[in-house]
Structures are given as C-alpha cells and as structure tokens.
Design a protein that fits this description.
The chain has about 130 residues and is mainly alpha-helical. It folds into two domains: about 80 residues, Orthogonal Bundle (Non-ribosomal Peptide Synthetase Peptidyl Carrier Protein, Chain A), CATH 1.10.1200; about 50 residues, no CATH class. It has five helices and two strands. Helix 1 crosses helix 5. The longest helix has 16 residues. The chain is globular, with a radius of gyration of 15 Å. The termini are close together. Belongs to the acyl carrier protein (ACP) family. InterPro entries: ACP, ACP-like_sf, PP-bd_ACP, Ppantetheine_attach_site. It comes from Thalassoglobus polymorphus. One of its GO terms (cellular component) is membrane.
Length: about 130
Amino acid sequence: MADQEEIFEKIQEVLEDALGVDDDEVTPEATLVGDLGAESIDFLDIVFRLEKAFELKIPRAELFPEDLMSADAGYVEDGKINAEGIAAMRTKLPHADIDKFAEDPKVENVQNLYTVDMLCKFIGSKLDG
C-alpha cells in the first residue's frame, strides 16, 4: 500500500514546481484552480510531472476528464450539473468529493473538485492498482 504522506510530499513538490507556489500553500484542501492558480495549460504539465515523479502512466483525460461538461453531454441545465451529470462525475472522478459538489452543482464549481487531496487519492489508487 502506498504511503499517503510520501504521496502528499511528492505531489506538493510537483505542484510547487508546476505552479510556482510555496509549500505552505499546497494543503490537502487546496483547489488547483482557485487556491493554487492553475490554468488549463497547467493541467497537462501537472499530469506529465506526476507521471515522472511516480513513474506511472496516466492515460489522457483520466485524471482531468475533458468531456464532463461539454454541451453535447446533456449534463448541464440552467447553469447547473443535473443528476445524470453528477452520476457521470462519480464514475469519471471517483477520487473527488462529488457529494460536496452536489450540494451546489453550478458549472463554475466543477473546478473545485480538483484538490490536492483528490490528486493524492488518485495517485494512491494508481500505485495500489
């Protein structure tokens, strides 16, 4: 079983390098976009750095699914993710806190799913798998 503290420390390092933030900013609750200032281009860099740091392969869009909120998916109604969309999120983002998101499922809150803790859980499951 992967050591959670080691995983957190490596992820902290990755995010410090990728986003130019200080280690005290990288807490488990920190959101990548809102708290750490990540932009869409940074997500590719983060995935690349995680692959390198943990010596594993992360398939495209597995960690950060791109199609979740596309207009074609039919998951958005009146600026909110509907029940079908939330169910899809549970499948595609099993390491994210979907229950918390479901309390206020506005589209703009989707970015808050991407937290340091979510990255730790994702990497832990990859290493254990």
